[in-house]
């Protein structure tokens, strides 16, 4: 069983609170650019396990499939600094029969300052052949339940999305 949560109980957005570690920072006390990926991917793995009861290992074992990264698009808006508490949000913003786009963003702890936005495009592959394969029904149902509704991804521009996230954060701060 890939998911233990019911589809109706699956939130669209997941959030984690983490501290920026000394070992991950450069001499200017900023999070090293390559470390953002570790923070995002570790947060997502924890989030989907907790919220959806999903395990990448179970997908690998049961379906003999996995997602592999095809492309990243990242914007470093403001630096994350040593010992700073930040929030990492992740959500699926697009999917089709064999592709998934996950959006990640990092903010300060109060969610008033955007630090980084990342889009990761992943392809669903067979581990036996290494070739793309369609998502099975169970995965398509999960993606349908957790994908952000109302986004026209094929016509969405990354920089416009950064602006929209900043507006979301400003609206939340003013609420």
TrEMBL record:
The keyword Hydrolase applies. Its EC number is 3.1.2.-. Gene3D superfamilies: Hotdog Thioesterase. Keywords: Hydrolase. InterPro entries: HotDog_dom_sf (IPR029069). One of its GO terms (molecular function) is hydrolase activity. This is Acyl-CoA thioester hydrolase.
């Amino acid at each position: 069983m890939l998911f233990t949560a019911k589809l109706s109980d699956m939130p669209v957005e997941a959030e984690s609170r983490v501290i920026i570690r000394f070992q991950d920072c450069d001499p200017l006390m900023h999070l090293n650019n390559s470390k953002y990926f570790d923070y995002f991917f570790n947060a997502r793995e924890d989030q989907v396990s907790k919220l959806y009861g999903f395990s990448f290992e179970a997908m690998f074992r049961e379906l003999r499939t996995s997602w592999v990264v095809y492309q990243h698009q990242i914007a470093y808006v403001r630096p994350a600094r040593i010992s700073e508490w930040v929030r990492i949000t992740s959500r699926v913003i697009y999917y089709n029969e064999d592709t998934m786009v996950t959006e990640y963003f990092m903010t300060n702890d109060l969610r008033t300052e955007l630090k980084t936005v990342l889009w990761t495009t992943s392809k669903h592959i067979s581990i036996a052949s290494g070739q793309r394969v369609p998502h099975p029904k169970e995965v398509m149902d999960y993606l349908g339940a957790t994908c952000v509704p109302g986004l026209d991804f094929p016509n969405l521009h990354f920089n416009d999305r950064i602006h929209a996230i900043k507006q979301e954060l400003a609206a939340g701060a003013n609420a």
